[in-house]
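User: Okay, second chain of the day. Same drill as before: sequence in, structure tokens out.
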Amino acid sequence: MPSSSVHKALEKVLAREAKMDEKNLMRAMKDLAKVEKAYQSSLKDTTKARKGLEKVMKQQHKTSKALESAQKHYDKAQEALVKTDDTYEEKRHHETLRFHDIESAQIQLTESYQAKISNDEERDRERASAYITTRRQQVAEEAARDDSGPVTAFAPSSSSSMIHT
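Assistant: Same drill. Structure tokens below.
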């Protein structure tokens, strides 16, 4: 029977090894399942991350376009500001020139008005002087006519005409 006990021992050892192999196989299958599950999870995570990356890249591209557009608008606004400021300064310069023109015209008007007043006064003096001169000549002519004219009954005597003169 020793062979039977060896045989039983061998059977036991073989059964134990088979059981261990079965356990190892089950453990390996469980590990594989865990790894596959982890791999599937990682695939999902990678897909999710890729979608997130694509979304962020799309948003970044959109933002970049908006920034570029905003920069263009800003540059145009800046250019318009400079242009408008230049125009404003030019208009202010023209305004200053026109103001000086007005001042000069007012001075010229005042001088012209003063010259007119002075010239009017001078003309009035010349008219008065001419009138006086003409009137003196008329009086002298009348007096000369009275002295040399025909004597009539109603004519005053020469001594009385002297009194009147």
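Residues 18 and 155 are 190 Å apart (CA to CA).

User: Thanks, on to the next one.
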